[in-house]
Amino acid sequence: MTTTETPIQLLHVDDQPSFTEMVAAQLEHERDRFTVQTATNATDGHDILADHEIDCVISDYEMPGQNGIEFLETVRTEYPDLPFILYTGKGSEAVASEAISAGVTDYLQKGSGNGQYAVLANRIENAVDRYQAQRVIEESRERLSLFIDQSLLGVIEWNKQLECVSMNDAAVDILGYSADEFVGNSWKTIVPDSEHGTVSDIIASLSGSNGASRTVIENTTRDGERIICEWHNHVITDADGEIVTIFSQLQDVTEQKQHERAIENERDKFKAFFEQLPIPAVRTTIEDGDPIVHGLNSAFEETFGYEETELEGRNLDAYVAPDSLSHSADRINQQFVESGHTSERVRRQTAAGIREFQLNVTHIDSTTLPEAYATYLPLGDDSPVNTGIGAHNTKIKTLHDVAAAIHEASDPEAVYTLLVDAAERILAFDLALADTIDDGELVPVAITDQVETYYETIPLAADDALAAEIARTGEPDITADLTDRDCSPADPTYRSALTVPIADHGVFQAVAREPDAFDETDLNLVSLLTTHADLALERLDREHELRDRTAELERQNERFEEFAGVVSHDLRSPLTVAQGHLEVAQDECDCDRLDRIDDAHIRIDTLITNLLTLARDGDTLSDRQPLDLAQVIDASWDHVDTADATLQVDVDTTVHADPSRLQQLFENLIRNAVEHGGADVTVRAGTHADGFYIEDDGPGISADDRKQVFEIGNSRVTDGSGFGLNIVKQIVETHGWEIVLTDSVSGGARFEIHGVSG
Fold first, then answer.
1. CA triple 224-227-230, angle to 5 deg
2. Domains of the chain as residue ranges with CATH
């Protein structure tokens, strides 16, 4: 037997003892991995099945009591998938047909000579290998089913035709379909036609060697909304490599992708602006104190004599700052690292020799653009750059400062005001305004003083309003002459306009009383500012939502506290009185009914305690401390009425946890074991690779009940109050751990806590 072969336990049932002994010897000779148990009738065969882990049954047909078919039928009631081979001397089509109908695994007629035992051994081995492989698959499916139910991500199970078999609640929330609606549907139900080719390629790749894939695609919800989801797909195959099922994890990344696209648009706009600068400009990152080049504009290439490909990824100073100037270059780099910007008169090596420049290095604070942007303004009488370029350079730096101020704005109105102020003060727009989108209308928030006439509001659906059109399309626009456009300006003297959307927040618009007043440079500069305004408004929206959630949580906490007070006073007070009267009655009368009343009082008190725990503690923790796990378990045991139960602790580890909540966790698990495992139950505590467990040797918790065991109000499998294991789950999740319910070795309940740090 090789190390990869597992032993196989066989049961051979035949009413001729000498024949069963011979078959056992022959089979064990054919395969070292075979061990054969024998019986001469079906009754003895059932006893062996009950006492041994049998992998395959071989049975004769004609036997006293039960024949082989009847024996098969009784075996199937308790072992529905166990391999069963009918090995009989009576061969007929009728017997074979009856055996197949009864669910026999294989049918073989006894023959003469030893060759038949090699055939029988092959049939047995093939049947058992398939059976064991199927059991592994089923166990994997059970684990995956548990994973599906508990996963925070959406999970969908598909059959090999890519039709939905099951989905968890998270997938329901993402896609909008209930499980009843979506089960049986193809993947095409949630994938738009434009993505079918991509998904087909993924399906083809899943049959490859790794059986897994990751992709991000557009999906369609039940309501027809287009969302972007990230999918992780995993294939389960059988022993022959055939696909049995496919599991997909998904999460909605629409907001993330939209944010990435906004950032990409910002980069594109900045790149276009960067390229159009008439003075040398370079984009770098400071790495180990050196400016590493990531982009040049054409003015830089012309002035310094290097193409972008020559400097990409290289230290800029090594090419433009000769050794005599390297000290000042190092100082400038350090100054930028410390302050985020620098402006200094420098001398640099150009294609025409050493020249003087005004160097400005900056980056845009509070964005995802970490690069440094350096511009070189030529100085001196021989400079080909006129004073207009100097003003342009100053304008750029000032816009950077405005962008930083926008990101620090404390409310949306301040964002819009800064945007309009920059248009008026820096870009020299006489007439500018910013509208916000509010309940289907554009509402002015900030307007320059020069705007005398403007609408109070504009419906987004308005056909004759340029601002409304741009808000709908999301595309910026330069209108050279408003008289050539089908729109109705607020003031008929307005002739040209620059209109830029602020994502889905609003619209910026500048107008002029002369035609063709705006160009692409104006558009690039305004687009840069509106991108920063969009990011700032998104931040403010998130902060507002967070404040609302915080306020709602505070209101909930107040209601919880009020509820806890009512429970504590209005329920505990009469319970205390009732317990007092009961004690007097027990002293005066020996009656079993009084004991049952006492038990009911104890259950009521447990219910009140658990209600107070949920209301007052919830998902809060005090400071975590390093705790000796064995000591916490022993202390918890002492606080529970354990009757004649036994505790076995095999723990030598420390965990970081809230002391009182951890003890409460163990008390509830121990109480659950004692109440449902019996007065003499044995409770064991131990550790595993990433946590600890509590298990017992009681009757366990059925697979049907495990899904609801942690739910509030489920008293059939918890402490009688319906809260005990729900509190356990809360404590586990509040610590950032995970809890899994499974079977103990002895068949009882086993609660495993995972993700625990020491």
1. 140
2. 8-138 (3.40.50.2300), 151-252 (3.30.450.20), 277-406 (3.30.450.20), 409-614 (3.30.450.40), 617-754 (3.30.565.10)
